[in-house]
Amino acid sequence: MRKLLIPVQGDYVAPRFDLATEILIVRFDNNAIIGRPRTIIMERPSEEELCQMVVKENITDLVCGGIEELHYNFLAWKKVKILDAVIGDWRTVIDRTISGTLSQGEILVNQDDEHLSL
Questions:
Q1: What residues pair up with 24 in beta bridges, in sequence order?
Q2: Residue 112: which pLDDT band, with cuts at 50, 70 and 90?
Q3: What is the radius of gyration, based on Cα positions, of the chain?
Q4: What percent of the chain has pLDDT over 70?
Q5: Planar angle of CA 111, 117, 118, nearest 5 degrees
Q6: Mean pLDDT across the chain
Q7: In sequence order, what are the residues at sequence separation of 6 or more whose Cβ sits closer than 8 angstroms to the Cβ of residue 47?
Q8: Residues 6+ apart with CB under 8 A from 69
Q9: Strand locations in the chain, DSSP E?
Q10: What are the residue ranges spanned by the domains of the chain?
Q11: Pairing of strands 2-9, 12-13
């Protein structure tokens, strides 16, 4: 079983790891979600608390927008698979992560947002 953590802002991946206050945790295995995704609301943004949460929750995968190199290196040292610089709605990010088709730096445009120019 693997555990995915995504800092979110509304319906999208939060643009910055260090400023996120809403966290989504999803357990998955064999390309399927296990149980219900869990949302955690943090009292205030704190990259240190977020890194501690990743370790405490035994997170195996992290998808985020921007992340400072210090925190990226710490989490990579803790054997967390990190895909950063990802832009898109968190539902698509979850689907693409558990199917193994999400890439670092990917910009995901769902059908409702196709009118936006990137």
A1: 6, 39
A2: low
A3: 13
A4: 92
A5: 100
A6: 92
A7: 17, 18, 68, 71
A8: none
A9: 2-9, 12-13, 22-29, 32-41, 61-63, 81-83
A10: 2-113
A11: antiparallel
Structure tokens at 11: 């319906």
| Residue located via tokens 């927008």 | 65
Predicted pLDDT at 58: 98
Number of C-beta neighbours around residue 17 at 10 A = 24
User: Which token pair is 18?
Assistant: 């260090």
Q: Which fold has domain 2-113?
A: Nucleotidyltransferase; domain 5 (3.30.420)
Tokens of 28: 């998955």
Tell me the three state secondary structure of residue 74.
helix
Q: 41-68: per-residue pLDDT in tens?
A: 999 999 999 999 999 999 999 999 999 9
- What pLDDT score was predicted for residue 109? 78
Tokens of 14: 């939060």
